[in-house]
Amino acid sequence: VSSIVPESCLLIVVGLLVGGLIKGVGEKPPILKSDIFFLFLLPPIILDAGYFLPLRPFTENLGTILIFAVVGTLWNAFFLGGLMYAVCQLGGPGLNHIGLLANLLFGSIISAVDPVAVLAVFEEIHINELLHILVFGESLLNDAVTVVLYHLFEEFASFEQVTILDIILGFLSFFVVSLGGVLVGVIYGVIAAFTSRFTSHIRVIEPLFVFLYSYMAYLSAELFHLSGIMALIAAGVVMRPYVEANISHKSHTTIKYFLKMWSSVSETLIFIFLGVSTVAGHHYWNWTFVISTLFFCLIARVLGVLVLTWFINKFRIVKLTPKDQFIIAYGGLRGAIAFSLGYLLDYKHFGMRDMFLTAIITVIFFTVFVQGMTIRPLVDLLAVKKKQETKRSINEEIHTQFLDHLLTGIEDICGHYGHHHWKDKLNRFNKKYVKKCLIAGERSKEPQLIAFYHKMEMKQAIELVESGGIGKIPSAVSTVSIQNINPQTLPLERVLPALSKDKEEEIRKILRTNLQKTRQRLRSYNRHTLVADPYEEAWNQMLLRRQKARQLEQKMNNYLTVPAHRLDSPTMSRARIGSDPLAYEPKEDSENLPIITIDPASPQSPESVDLMSEEPKGCVGLPPSPEEDEEGLVMRVKEPSSPGTDDVFTPGTSDSPNNQRMQRCLSDPGPRPEPEEGEPFIPKGQ
Asked: Which of 116, 144, 198, 537: disulfide with 227, CB 3.0–4.6 Å?
């Protein structure tokens, strides 16, 4: 049956049956008293949730969770209280006497999402991590709002007149209650971590300190009307990394399974007692009030989620889709916290307590039974992403950590202080100061991976010596220690070590936290403090000289270049020769044509034509050959310069003033062609 109906629904049914049996026998069934609920049944569930809270998704979505928990709960409470007051005024003689404060108090009790109910249902449907942490985080953090509103309206009910000052103080008390609860939890978490430093010789009582200090944090917070749930969560989150580094592996296992067992027993008792209390309690049924409460609860939740998500999505990178919004709205389950708060109401100030309790129980039953039973088929129908059953590989975890380092570096370079920057600062402060104070011995300095390896190797070597055999050598023992212990030949078949799940988890955690230690403390980026490259200055000088030479050459070209004659038509040429035959008579040394040397490195580029060796053919002292006469202009390949010389400033054989003047006259290549798409940006060989 539990595959269709959630466990919480079945437990309530069991409670109803048990209550019915007790009443049938003639005895009075026990009622879930608020003291028992808040002091003994609720803390184990919250400690289990806080101690094993998935920190990364929680901190990444903290802004969204806080908006849903604070603004969403306030909206629900006031919207519901205001509308119920209107219903009471219009609802006839039975409801007229219920005032605005009583309705607002009722709204604050019924508006908060219940962590116990959410855990019971969401654990079974295996929803994805994001949705789970959003709904569950909201149910944990809205406790502060509920506590403040509950005590506020309860106090106001006893006042003759509520002033503006009372309202302002009530608003400020929200910050005192929430931040005070967190502060109490952090203090007790640090004390628990510090105590675990000195428990190495009494391992048996190590788990006791975790439970003791957590419970003391809860009681201390409740004593001063602070948020006990926030205190428990803060204590669990703060103490866990340091306590687990100090305590033994057996103590860790004890804490883990004892918390799971304790929380599941509390959960079972809470839902059974809800069923029994429903049968045992005094009820006053008013159709108008109960149906209106149920309807407005659903409307307020849906409207609140839609409006807040529209606002939140403006700032989120990963947007919440309509499917996500539906699951968040549909997952707003009410539970035993609302029932216990209603049960705490005083008859003296709230004569309508029985009617309130009846409406609260109706809402709890509707959300747990109807919404709890239909959420699983709806998740399947909407194809909402489920949680990954398999753990992420170490490769994925290391790359996630690497990306964190990368994003921190990018934020540093940009000068933008985002949450990666502050997370990195916190990690450094934790490593440099806090770990040294709260973690015992060498564990605070030595890399955990090496310490764990040494411990494992030593343990297996001792086991090997005690057993006297070599057939079961695990792969973790080094070959040197094997040879020293028992120098025998190894068996052909390699025996793989059977690692327990806890060991595997520990190795996985050690690899995850130690394989990325690349980010070290460096000086902040400043162009004045950069280390100078010895070759950089020389290269800069050479590039500057070349640039100046090119600029100078371009200027000279602009002033000294002889404009080229426009080509005349054949008729005009003949007319000119006829009018002035002497000017157009061929010269005697017309065979001494200039030689244009071309650099073949990049024929596409006009700058690659080199006109430096414009020597006449006859200047070498050899008579020109008839083949060369026929060729006219000869292209010669330019000899490559030696690698150590600067070809701009090394004087060549053709650097005489006449040649340079000739070069200037002939070196204007005309308008530069546009580079083609496939052409390289830097020509080869330059």
From this structure: 144
Residues ≥6 apart with Cβ < 8 Å to 91: 286, 288, 289, 292
CA 611 to each of CA 563, 636, 682: distance values in angstroms, whole numbers, following the listed order? 18, 11, 21
71 and 210 housed in the same domain = yes
Helical spans, DSSP H, in 281-352: 287-312, 322-330, 336-343
Q: For residues 521 and 424, give the distance between their C-alpha atoms in angstroms, rounded to a whole number.
A: 11
Q: Could you tell me if 340 and 149 are in contact, meaning their C-beta atoms sit under 8 angstroms apart?
A: no
Return the number of other C-beta atoms located less than 10 Å from residue 635's C-beta: 11
Of 352, 382, 412, which residue sits at a domain end?
A: 382
Q: Phi and psi (nearest 5°) for 78?
A: -75, -40
pLDDT tens column, 215-231: 999 999 999 988 899 99
Chosen domain end from 410, 442, 459: 459
What does the pLDDT look like over 39-94, one tens digit per residue? 999 999 999 988 998 888 898 889 999 999 999 999 999 999 999 888 888 876 77
User: Is position 570 within any domain?
Assistant: no
My answer on whether 350 and 441 are in the same domain is no
Look at the chain and report how many structural domains it folds into.
2
CA distance 234 to 189: 7
Query: CB 212: neighbour CB atoms within 10 A?
Result: 14
* Nearest alpha carbon to residue 223 among 260, 192, 184, 171: 184
How far apart CA 19 and CA 24 sit, in angstroms, is 8
* Angle at 240 (CA atoms; ends 236, 241), nearest 5 degrees: 145
Rounded CA-CA distance 118/267 in Å is 11
Structure tokens at 171: 């608003």
388 falls within a domain: no
Residue 97's alpha-carbon distances to 290, 352, 606, in angstroms, are: 16, 9, 98
- Residue 383 Cα distances to 132, 320, 386, 403, 586, angstroms: 16, 15, 8, 30, 93
Note the residue count of the chain: 686
- Give the tens place of pLDDT for each residue, 449-501: 555 566 666 667 777 777 765 544 444 444 434 434 444 444 444 445 566 77
Task: List, edge to edge, every strand of the sheet that includes 596-598.
Answer: 609-610, 596-598, 635-637
93 and 225: one domain?
yes
117 shares its domain with 41: yes
Q: Is 475 helix (H, G, I), strand (E, B) or coil?
A: coil
Q: Are residues 197 and 230 in the same domain?
A: yes
**181 and 33 belong to one structural domain:** yes
336 vs 58: CA distance, rounded Å: 24
Model-level pTM?
0.64
Q: What is the mean pLDDT of the chain?
A: 76
Indicate whether 292 and 330 sit together in one domain: yes
Question: Kind and range of the H or E element at 23?
Answer: helix 7-25
Q: CA 631, 634, 639: angle at the middle one, nearest 5? A: 155
The structure tokens listed for 58 are 């929680």
- Mean pLDDT for 411-427 is 83
Give the integer Cα–Cα distance in Å for 658 and 623.
23
Predicted confidence at residue 490, as pLDDT, reads 45
DSSP secondary structure code for residue 609 in this structure: E
pLDDT in tens, 116-161: 888 888 888 888 888 889 988 998 888 888 888 888 888 887 777 7
Predicted confidence band of residue 542 (pLDDT cuts 50, 70, 90): confident
In a domain, 592, yes or no: no
Range of the domain at 425: 399-459
| Contact call for residues 610 and 598 (beta carbons, < 8 A) | yes
Residue 523 lies in a domain: no
Alpha helix (H) residue ranges in 366-469: 372-381, 394-414, 419-429, 435-438, 448-467
In this structure, the answer to whether residues 242 and 172 fall within a common structural domain is: yes
Nearest-angstrom CA–CA distance, 85 and 637: 100
The amino acid at 507: I
Residue whose tokens read 């040429």: 573
